[in-house]
Amino acid sequence: MQKTAKGKINLQLNETKSYKQEGDDYLDVKIKGYASTHDIDRYGEHFVFGAFSKAVNKYLSGNPVLLIDHNQGVASIVGRVNSLTEDSKGLFMEATITNDPQFKSLRYRIVEGLVNSVSVSGRWSYEGKAIKEVSDLYEISLVAVPANAGALISAKSFEKDDNLKDKIILNIKQ
After folding, report:
1. Which tens digit of pLDDT belongs to each residue from 26-76?
2. How much of the chain is in helix, strand and coil states, percent to nearest 5?
3. Domains in the chain: how many in total?
4. Residue 76 is part of which domain span?
């Protein structure tokens, strides 16, 4: 039996982030990782492989905003999702965080590793606890507590913008 519902599935960002430091701010912050995985989340639900196939192009060609905490007001837009690709692990995304001075604190928290969780919101069809098809992906948000605790940022890079070209790579072990 299938049912259709609006919902939010919280997942953690995985992979990498990059940025440059200018003065006391981090600019051009880019994040890469999984906005969703096929793993079973804390609610016992999971997206099956291929569930996002109809929704990805529609989302990217529409309004691919990155929000904070699923707040859908204009003031909560913190970036743009540049690409989404579904693979055998999940929905891989690349996004850019806005350089708006209002979000300086958010950029710091991303660079420090305090904000590393992602959540997707949309309309999908269930078969039991398996999400078979995402008919509409509404938005992707940075969140504090995800439903899927399995994916963490594995690396981040730092490049100073003062011609010293120092580069620090931090590997965070799971």
Report:
1. 888 888 888 888 999 888 999 999 999 999 999 999 999 999 998 999 999
2. 10, 55, 35
3. 1
4. 2-164
